[in-house]
Each structure stands twice: as C-alpha cells, then as structure tokens.
Amino acid sequence: MSNLLNPDQLGERWQKSRQSLAQMRYRGNGPKFISIGRSIFYRESDILEFEESNIRTRTDDAPEAA
Prior knowledge:
Number of domains: 1
Order of helices and strands: EHHEEH
Radius of gyration: 13 Å
C-alpha cells in the first residue's frame, strides 16, 4: 500500500490549514481521501495525481479533463 498522510502532514506540505483541507473534502475539489472512523488519510499517489492535474502554464488555463 502506498504511504498515507494525515491532514496535518498534507497541510504542512501545501501550507494549508486543517480547515482548508476539510473544506476541499466537503466541496469535492481536493484529492481523494480515505475516511476510517473519524480519521482522514490521503494516499501519496492520490496527492501526486491531484498535484499533476493542477499544473498550469497560464493563469487562465482551464483544468484538463479527467
């Protein structure tokens, strides 16, 4: 299984608060996540996929179709 990050670890990586990540999960505009009980985890492979899908060359670039 790939490495798992908790919200604190991902927040440190992206310089985002736990609340910002919670909003991304609620809105569905963040990386895939795993929910086990009340704990949230992110697979490193899903984080990398999400980061790659958000690479832009211009500010007005539209996201690539998934």
